[in-house]
Amino acid sequence: MSRRRGDRFPRVRGFAKGYDRKQVEAFLVRADLALQGALPSVTATEIRQAGFELVRRGYQVEAVDEVLDEMELQAVLLAAATSRRGRVDPVAEAEFLRKELSAPYMRRFPRVRFPRRGYDLDDVDEFVDRVCTALDAAVASLAADTGGLSVAEVRTVAFRPKRGGYSEDAVDEALDRVVEMMLLMEAGSRR
Question: Is the pTM of this model over 0.90?
Answer without folding.
Answer: no
